[in-house]
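Support case: S-adenosylmethionine complex. Customer-provided input:
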Amino acid sequence: MSQSEKSRRMGAVKQITSHSNPIVKEIKGLVSQRKQRTQSGLFVAEGLKLATDAIEAGWEVRYLALGPEARENRIAQKAAATAKAKGAMILEVNTAVMSAMTRKDNPQMVVGVYEQRLQDIESIDPAAATVWVALDRVRDPGNLGTIIRTVDAVGATGVILVGDCTDPFAVEAVRATMGSLFHVPLVKTTEETFKKIAQSWPGTVAATHLKGSVDYRTPDYSEPVLLVMGNEQKGLGDDMANACKTLIRIPQVGEADSLNLAVATGISLYEIRRKNLDL
Ligand code: SAM
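Agent response - structure generated as follows:
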């Protein structure tokens, strides 16, 4: 084990004032390059709320960068102490370095680097599920993050990313989850594997489709539900649609061709979970 690895495991505090510090460069790369996130298995989440969500949910923290304001903030100090005790390196940085790391003029007071988590498709247990949302080649990180947040809000079980999807650990996606990323299991799979799952699913399989013949308010949605959503531009692929028992449609009256993917997912999820949601 290298010296830096040893000190990281024990938890350490490091002051960084230079933009050219290797850790600053590493974090910049994680913010801007999917390849670097994939190779390292790490990602960046901005903000104190996300840091406390991640730490409380037991995610591995690699670095926690604290700007000047965070060093005066009790919650940030507590988060840093917990993360450090679990082996994270605490970085004390100035506002300029925080800006450089996150490529933002007004950076958050805390920025964390965490280990990614993706579950295996085999871990899906329909018997223990309410609703899994499957996304066919979702492209927009904001849509993906918003869907993860909504899945969390309605008490659905998790999200399955099917085929070539946007990176759930991209900064924009993580930001849009508002912390729900740390509470919602994510699975990645291929279209072939997904079709097998859909065909053997024991409960309701409902795919949203602009050509669906079933009004989304009519099925009884007996759980476990597999809700399947199409790609932003191309909609749901034909093979995917054929693997699903019911094609549901959300009525529209104006001139819009379709609803935004995250909006259509939210409307469907609230209908599916309606009986389980009380104020
Ligand atoms: N041009 C695409 C098409 O032909 O399907 C539009 C895709 S739409 C932006 C993205 C996804 O949101 C669709 O594939 C579907 O899953 C869902 N969606 C959007 N509006 C819908 C509606 N009115 N009824 C059912 N699903 C809808």
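The two ends are 52 Å apart (CA to CA).

Case will auto-close in a few days if no follow-up is received.
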